[in-house]
Amino acid sequence: MIKAKNLTKKFKDFIAVDHINIEVPKGQIFGFLGPNGAGKTTTIRMLTGTLKPTEGEIEILGLDMKKNEIEIKRRIGVVPDEPKIYNHLKGFEYLEFVMDIYNTNNSETLNRINELCKAFEVNYLEKLISDMSHGMKQKLILISVLMRKPEVIFLDEPTVGLDAKSAKILKELLKKYSEQGTTIFLTTHILEIAEKMCDVIAIINKGKIIAQGTIDGLKKQSGSKNKTLEDLFLELTAQEEDIKRIVESL
């Protein structure tokens, strides 16, 4: 459902993503982890067609991104790291706008909006987006994606700004969708979420994928079954000793 081969992005002399390879089958929750600036968001932007790669090939749903960009965008959903939406619209106007773009302005979608609004306690669709908090906007973005039931969903730090109940509902909903065949590509800094949710995890650092596999597989590679994902992450990204040094110096 998601395939990247030798995917690379350069910004002048800086290599943000360096010849990475990814394959995600149908129904899998794929966790993409890394420190700030490691290349996670740049990778998602390339995979979703909002940023052109310098090198490499991308296939989504078996379709070549270079030849089928609009068809791919019609069938996927993207929750970005920042909820950048039109401030001059009201909440319901934004959802209507998205429905019209995707030609899904029908009773089925409206029913799903009502269900999702109840689930995430969104009772502010009459409010201007400019008057909404970050968390309120994040819920609106989530509803605008989930109401369409896309075949592949990309989420970049989706729980940032959400209250505990909404974050839990989102996590359980994504699990349910994956069981129904939806493919999930997820980035998060909350390693506990990744450890509990993801079928496979890839860790990127300085633009390169340095580890990839199941949680159990990564633990076996490290030589210890008792390590948490946090331990593995810090060890692989060479931050463990740095943390000790910083704490000792404070």
UniProtKB/TrEMBL annotation:
Domain ABC transporter: from-to ranges: 2-231
Molecular-function GO term, any one: ATP hydrolysis activity
Could you tell me the keywords of this UniProt record? ATP-binding, Nucleotide-binding, Transport
Write down what this protein is called: ABC-2 type transport system ATP-binding protein
Q: Does the keyword Zinc apply?
A: no
Query: What family classification does the UniProt entry report for this protein?
Result: Belongs to the ABC transporter superfamily.
Q: Does the keyword Transferase apply?
A: no
**Mind telling me which Gene3D superfamilies this protein's record contains?**
P-loop containing nucleotide triphosphate hydrolases
Against SUPFAM superfamilies, the record matches this protein to: P-loop containing nucleoside triphosphate hydrolases
**Domain of life where this protein originates:** Bacteria
Q: Which PROSITE patterns match?
A: ABC_TRANSPORTER_1 (PS00211), ABC_TRANSPORTER_2 (PS50893)
Membrane-crossing ranges are: none
